[in-house]
Design goal:
Rossmann fold; single chain; 5-stranded parallel sheet; alpha/beta; DNA polymerase, domain 1; 5 strands; 50% helix
Length: 207
């Protein structure tokens, strides 16, 4: 039987309800060029991907000129930071989850497909940073999710084996990444699902 020593969290849609912020910010950046992603398409095809991965898909599917990628990415990140500043606040539920798990001796880390700047600001504004040993962004790996590199790198950094880790993920790309790392995976549908009781129940079922 495995003994779980670490819990690794995705950020958007797991610890912070930020999926709509990324959706809105990207559409704000695309609007001047006549492009828009409807909500259903975003959830089905784009959710959990990095902004640059989304832009590649837009070029492949809808002909977005590749020479616009850098500029649109910069615009998107600017709009994301503005939305974070106005909407991101601490929640008791998620601070409690991390605080209690940390107190009980679990290693805690965050692995997100967001850029470093977004992760740092969100974790600070949501009051999560103090509980995490480290965070990894899409800028810390050569291949973003759904590739498992980000989780494999986090597990190695903790000096653990995959079977000693539980990953909490919410979307298809993140779940694919987590499973490919060979760690245990807890699938949730939204931040409200992420409770101390559910995580401990999952750990007990594993061990």
């Amino acid at each position: 039987m495995s003994q779980i020593k670490a819990v690794l969290f995705d950020m958007d849609g797991v610890l912070i309800d930020a999926r709509d912020w990324h959706y809105e910010a990207l559409n704000m950046a695309l609007a001047p060029f006549g492009y828009v992603i409807n909500r259903e398409s975003h959830l089905l095809s784009f959710d959990g991907l990095s902004t640059r991965q989304k832009l590649v898909k837009l070029s492949q599917a809808y002909g977005l000129p590749e020479q616009l990628h850098d500029f649109i990415n910069e615009l998107k990140q600017k709009f994301t930071q503005e939305l974070i500043a106005s909407r991101c606040n601490p929640t008791f539920q998620h601070r409690y989850v991390l605080a209690r798990l940390k107190r009980e001796g679990y290693h805690l880390a965050l692995c997100s497909n967001s850029i470093r700047a977004s992760i740092d600001v969100m974790c600070e504004k949501a009051g999560l940073a103090e509980f995490l040993e480290f965070t990894l962004s899409n800028e810390d790996v050569s291949k973003a999710k759904p590739d498992p590199e980000i989780y494999t790198k986090a597990i190695q950094r903790l000096g653990l084996n995959p079977e000693e880790c539980l990953i909490v993920e919410d979307n298809e790309n993140g779940i694919t990444s987590a499973k490919a790392s060979h760690a245990h995976v807890l699938e949730v549908s939204c931040p409200d699902d992420v409770t101390y009781q559910l995580i401990i129940k999952t750990i007990k079922a594993i061990t």
